[in-house]
Specification:
Elements: E1 4-9, H1 15-26, E2 30-31, H2 33-42, E3 59-60, H3 61-64, E4 77-78, H4 80-97, E5 100-103, H5 107-110, E6 117-122, H6 125-136, H7 140-162, E7 174-177, H8 178-196
Parallel strand pairs: 1-5, 1-6, 2-5, 6-7
Antiparallel strand pairs: 3-4
Helix pairs in contact: 1-8, 6-7
Length: 201
């Protein structure tokens, strides 16, 4: 059985960093937006196909296709649903090949028929705003605005494609507040939980 850990996260919680820490501690690859794009490119799709993921709507063929896979075209464009289907193919291929930590991209839903550890990393708004202010050099108002916009985008995207509710505890095996243990401690906690649950080697 492969170890597959799918990490959902609220914006500013450090969930991506937690995912990277999990991969480092377990010695397994971590697939974020950039590496999923690379995997798509290796499968014959243009690297820029997933560049903005949740924020794209329509995609020009000339801009995004290098493989000539015309079966994916809809009046000369790649629409959101087609993009999600391609993304799903890539994520399933990643899971087929071996152990992986997959960050975002509705991976918990896409791989729902497989034994995976599905976690959601969140945190109090004030904690997330403070992290964004420090990491992105933003004012408090700018950080809060960015946090709410990104959360709304992720929620809309997830809910539309999974028919579920983003961040709802019942959708995941574990929901954790990263402000309590920090990045490294949260990663350790998730790994320990996964091993106790029999989902992490």
């Amino acid at each position: 059985m492969h170890t597959i850990i799918n990490v959902g996260r609220s914006f500013g919680s450090g969930g991506g960093f937690v995912g990277q820490a999990i991969g480092r501690k377990l010695g397994i690859p971590v697939f974020d937006n950039e590496l999923i794009s690379k995997a798509a490119e290796e499968s014959g799709y243009s690297k820029s196909l997933f560049a903005k993921g949740e924020e794209k709507s329509l995609f020009s063929v000339s801009s995004f296709f290098a493989s000539g896979r015309l079966s994916y075209l809809d009046n000369g464009y790649v629409n959101d649903n087609v993009l999600f289907n391609i993304q799903s193919e890539v994520i399933r291929s990643i899971a087929d090949k071996g152990d992986a930590v997959i960050i975002g991209r509705c991976a918990d839903y896409i791989l729902r028929d497989r034994p995976c550890l599905n976690v959601f990393v969140g945190g109090p708004e004030e904690y997330r705003i403070r992290r964004l202010m420090e990491n992105e050099h933003l004012s408090e108002r700018e950080a809060e605005k960015l946090m709410r916009r990104k959360d709304r985008t992720r929620e809309t995207y997830y809910n539309y494609y999974t028919f579920g509710s983003w961040g709802l505890a019942s959708n995941y095996h574990l929901c954790v507040d990263s402000s309590l243990l920090g990045i490294e401690g949260t990663a350790d906690f998730i790994i320990d939980f996964g091993r106790r649950a029999g989902l992490v080697k």
